[in-house]
Amino acid sequence: DTIIADNKGIQDYVAEEYGKKAELVTYGGDHVMTGVDEKLQNEILAKYSLEKEQYSISVCRIEPENNCHITLEAFSKSKERLVFIGNWNRSEYSRALKEKYSKFGNITILDSIYDLDVLYTFRKHAKYYIHGHSAGGTNPSLVEAMFFARPIMAYDVVYNKETTFHKANYFKNAEELGQLLQKEQSGGEEIRRIALENYTWQKIAKE
């Protein structure tokens, strides 16, 4: 039998906790590069009243372990615009957040979107990608975002640091995320290079 870990943080944990060697196989993310034509991209942005590189985006399941409350709190105190996509009607936690933060003019809360053309457009033209996941593993939505060469702000846990090779920006609370939003962030091209070298499905399939 072979033990598979999807993140170096998990691989290290298995070694320390169980004394077992796990093979590292992460996720591919290049399937998101659908290459929507520019005309459709502009139509999608116009539909949602978005301007290129004038908003940040977050895509996730709306659960406490994804720290959606931290992201929303930070943007509620910022002038920066946020587009937050998720399943907002799933739980008491998600419904309460939607009710509280949809009142802010700079926060756009959208229900789950599975249309890859729309997600491609949102991600391609975002200023930053916000990733609040704190639970273990290599998260597919983070890997997908890395292909768009946008600076990434990720929750400060070993899993996110390993996935981004320590080249993203990291936060532990709303105050730290707010401080990151006050400064121009860079590093998107390096993030994309990491994705192309490590997270293509061709590489993952071979592994």
Features:
207 residues, alpha/beta, six-stranded parallel beta sheet, two-stranded parallel sheet, 10 helices, 14% strand
Structural commentary:
The protein is built from ten helices and eight strands. The two termini are 16 Å apart. The protein is globular. Helix 2 (38-47) packs across helix 5 and helix 3 crosses helix 8 (174-181). The mean pLDDT is 95. It is α/β, with parallel strands linked by helices. Strands 5-4-3-6-7-8 form a six-stranded parallel β-sheet, with helices on both faces. It has helices at 8-18, 38-47, 68-76, 92-101, 116-124, 140-146, 158-163, 174-181, 188-198, 201-206; strands at 4-5, 23-24, 56-59, 82-86, 107-111, 128-131, 152-155, 169-171. The protein is 42% helix and 14% strand.
